[in-house]
Amino acid sequence: MTAPRLEIDLDKIYHNARTLVERLARRGISVTGVTKASLGSLDIANTLLRAGVHALGDSRVENIEAMRGGHVAAPMMLIRSPMLSQADRVVRQADTSFNTELAVINRLSCAARDVNRMHNIVLMVELGDLREGIMPADLKEVVRAVLRMPNIHLSGIGANLACHGGVSPDADNMSELSALADSVEAFFGVSLELVSGGNSANLDWALSGVDTGRINNLRLGEAILLGCEPLHRQPIKGLYTDAITLVAEVIEAKVKPARPWGTIAQTAFGEAAVVDCGGDMSRAILAIGHQDVDPSGLQAPCGIRILGASGDHLIIHSDSLHQAAGAEVRFGLNYSALVRAMTSPFVAKVIRDG
Ligand SMILES: *Cc1c(COP(=O)(O)O)cnc(C)c1O
Fold it and tell me: What is the helix, strand, coil percentage profile of the chain, to 5?
């Protein structure tokens, strides 16, 4: 079979998504299935919908266009603030977009009026992680302006944590979001359908049994695809962590000295690899590198150690297995490795379903 390749097990993705949808439903929380890591794959999008996610979310309008083009039947949310330059495409393709800038919402309003549509807006609020969000003190002023804009419907507010500052979702910041929802509703006499608390990093909080307040939605990507929570990168109980694996092929296998020789300087990707032993060792090279994957995010199988990587080569050591040219090695992936492999045209995507 072709290599390198990502093997994608749709049954495992279905199980992960369904399990999270059910666990969160008991807390009154719906799931937006986040498709950005899978580049709008139609198979994965349709699997998430079968598993009961209420909408699909993606950070890139190109992926939403791909899913629309493939007749994926779901409400689509652009979960990154739209670029001004893409406002027309956003209004045509997405039912909802997440926003923090009035200039952008204004442009969305004009674009929506041009095509005689309503466009839904979720206003993102800054709760301390310092990525996207309107400062809480400025929220009322923004809501006031948004409510006056033609062809725009304010459908909710949201927040995103654990993506830049490493701030964990907790009872304090989530109650703050709930309180903001209450105060916007009371002040303007509107009702907010969606209070979207965050991403996979919110799962510990949401399932811990605390009062989840007004939060009625989470946007989940990593937890569904990798079965892991991102705060401590621990497996989530009852989920598969191997729904997606990466297979690469050996192109050289030799016994060579463990230590390089000659004058040591930097390599193409920074510092030279650290060597902790002398003597000879069995080494193999796989035909995959930084251009295809984040090598630091690969989990090697038992008995295999990753020694280093360059643009097109991954160098491994194995004690037990005898690797020969043509042999295949299978790896687990973290989010960073997954995103890069999904994006590489050199990595085939092979769907498995039962
Ligand atoms: C990527 C992203 C998500 C999903 O994050 P995961 O950790 O993959 O669950 C949710 N919300 C926003 C705004 C995002 O950018």
Answer: 30, 25, 40
Distance 146 CA to ligand 1 centre (A): 24
Residues carrying CATH 3.20.20.10, the chain: 10-226
In sequence order, the 6+-apart residues with CB closer than 8 A to the CB of 179 are none
Helices (H) and strands (E) in the chain, counts: 10, 18
Separation of CA 200 and ligand 1 centre (Å): 7
Chain segment 287-304, per-residue pLDDT in tens: 999 999 999 999 999 999
Instruction: State the Cα–Cα distance between residues 313 and 100, nearest whole angstrom.
Output: 42
What is the position in ligand 1's atom list of the atom closest to the CA of 201? 7
Q: What is the pLDDT of residue 321?
A: 60
Per CATH, the number for 10-226 is 3.20.20.10
Write out pLDDT tens, residues 232-253.
Answer: 999 999 999 999 999 999 999 9
> In terms of pLDDT, which residue wins out, 231 or 275?
231
Residue 157's closest CA among 179, 176, 181, 140? 181
